[in-house]
Recover the amino acids of this structure.
């Protein structure tokens, strides 16, 4: 589907569904509103799916992987080869996202959207857990020029949309976002600075764990990248291509695709939320389909959440990415749905109501 | 066992176990510390159980039920008969705690420790899910005198200790606390005011949902109860008996018993944490065995958590009680343990470390 046609098909969720869900919640054997945000999650799921009894039996977290030319500027504590090594770790089931996705009953789909490594040459082909959709072999160093062309960024978005379509069609009922890409807090911070108007210092964190000097260098690299590319803050795709990354674009696409498919999508941490901000600025109605998984320890995250208007489900000082927060938050969101679906009403349980 | 002998058997957890657990956490394929509080939960479980590979296969939430004489002072939005009605709802599996315990893979054990209703007369006998350990048939109206005698309060504590012993012996690996008792935010607020030194106004909330006038009445009832009983703030059992409740005492006992059995215990919301504060003041080492499930919307909760020195796992605007927050938090704590146990190390996954 043409991107613009798809975007115009995205609608706000229908408040009537949330209202009916609230009526049911208020008939359950508990003081009204006493399950707090769990009630809110249930209402949002009903409104998104337009189904009074939503089902979350099939869950999937998409972990988009991409490399970043800007890694050569010394912005990360880890060497670049960790990106493909972690992709192998995801496939072998040993990474944090594998553990927490198993815990949440979710599948993990690893998407090579921009890794600078030849997985086909290494014998790895598309499978149920590995998707080969490489648009770039790593982005270019954004300190010296655009990370990607506009065409590449759009293609990455379309990869995400395509996955959303495919997995919605396969019957998956909730999506999670995740990513892997050494240096990817650098483009995420750059995007955050440009699109929220905050200073680079205020929204740049320590990523995988850099020291003070490396942090100062990272801030300078981000400032230089913005100065070199002059991204247009009124054009999210321009920002995404010039100072973004392939996995960030894939996540933005997945979210757009989720909204078009009336499927809830749980946004992981800082990098995923940078992707969500791009999706939101492309089409603000996508927000209705988003759940913010958690508050990352990465300092810029709060600013993007506020910009979109999302309140995170969890706050556990996590900062790993991969989709770990999204997997964990799915369990809480599902808890809210079960409260809504499984609790007895005052009438069913013969419990007296409020005096 | 004599209470004092039991108390003297409670030890602080051994920091060496947490240290060894941290070494393993730092060898896993993630930046050090990047799983945030999930790492902390895993370390605490290792230290509590003195086991490098703890298992949480059998979980149980104890929902202690009791009535309160002070209910006749119009402090609750719900009539008193809701306490036994909700006990039946728990047994039939239709309450919030049943739903979330199923979600967390935990069993629910409902304990009649002080309900003003004859369940035996109604045909209900002790079973795997219902424990008949009635110490009082509701407390007395504390506005007019002590809620319980000191002897009754100690007996309620011993019920909790006995359950902890029994379920530890049966192989249960983690306990959760919960409660049901119309009007029980009133004694919880009274306990909080006396033991934290905060003003009654600052720590009194709206319980199941009372209006402004009823709230003002509730504050006055609490002030009158404290004035009438003059509980000794240096004697937690005196406070518990005069202005407490049977279920609060049972929870305090369960926590003491959990610590004595080196078993982690997840404290639910405001009322449970009032019980935890009593346990903590009786024996401060019990804190090492506690997890605070969530931050309740009930306004006094924060003050007790601070007094004990606990940071809650979740913050979801919940205020139902029953153990609902404890059940949900178990899922997050278990996620932390799985990260610790199941993730691949850098060596196993052949992933490069920090530069």
């Amino acid at each position: 589907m043409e991107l613009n046609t798809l975007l115009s098909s995205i609608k706000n969720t229908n408040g009537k569904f949330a209202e009916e869900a609230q009526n049911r919640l208020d008939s359950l054997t508990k003081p009204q509103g006493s399950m707090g945000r769990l009630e809110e999650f249930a209402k949002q799921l009903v409104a998104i799916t337009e189904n009074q009894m939503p089902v979350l039996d099939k869950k999937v977290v998409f972990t988009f992987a991409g490399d970043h030319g800007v890694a050569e500027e010394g912005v990360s504590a880890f060497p670049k080869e960790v990106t493909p090594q972690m992709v192998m770790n995801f496939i072998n089931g040993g990474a944090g996202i594998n553990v927490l996705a198993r815990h949440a009953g979710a599948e993990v789909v690893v998407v090579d959207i921009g890794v600078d490594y030849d997985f086909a040459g290494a014998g790895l082909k598309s499978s149920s857990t590995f998707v080969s959709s490489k648009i770039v072999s790593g982005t270019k160093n954004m300190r010296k020029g655009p990370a990607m062309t506009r065409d590449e960024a759009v293609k990455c978005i379309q990869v995400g949309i395509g996955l959303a379509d495919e997995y919605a069609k396969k019957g998956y009922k909730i999506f999670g976002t995740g990513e892997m890409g050494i240096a990817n807090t650098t483009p995420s911070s750059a995007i955050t600075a440009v699109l929220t108007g905050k200073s680079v210092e205020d929204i740049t964190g320590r990523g995988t764990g850099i020291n003070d000097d490396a942090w100062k260098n990272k801030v300078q690299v981000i400032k230089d990248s913005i100065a070199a590319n002059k991204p247009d803050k009124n054009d999210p795709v321009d920002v995404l291509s010039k100072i973004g990354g392939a996995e960030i674009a894939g996540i933005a696409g997945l979210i757009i695709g989720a909204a078009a498919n009336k499927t809830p999508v749980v946004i992981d941490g800082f990098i995923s939320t940078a992707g969500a901000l791009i999706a939101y600025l492309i089409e603000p109605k996508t927000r209705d389909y988003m759940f913010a998984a958690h508050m990352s320890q990465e300092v810029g995250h709060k600013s993007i959440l506020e910009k979109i208007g999302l309140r995170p489900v969890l706050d556990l000082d996590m900062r790993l990415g991969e989709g770990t927060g999204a997997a964990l938050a799915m369990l809480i969101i599902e808890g809210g749905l079960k409260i809504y679906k499984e609790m007895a009403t005052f009438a069913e349980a013969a419990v007296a109501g409020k005096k």
In short: The longest strand of chain A covers residues 106-114. Strands of chain A lie at 59-66, 106-114, 130-132, 174-180, 265-267, 290-292. The two ends of chain A are 56 Å apart (CA to CA). Residues 85 and 117 of chain A are 10 Å apart (CA to CA).
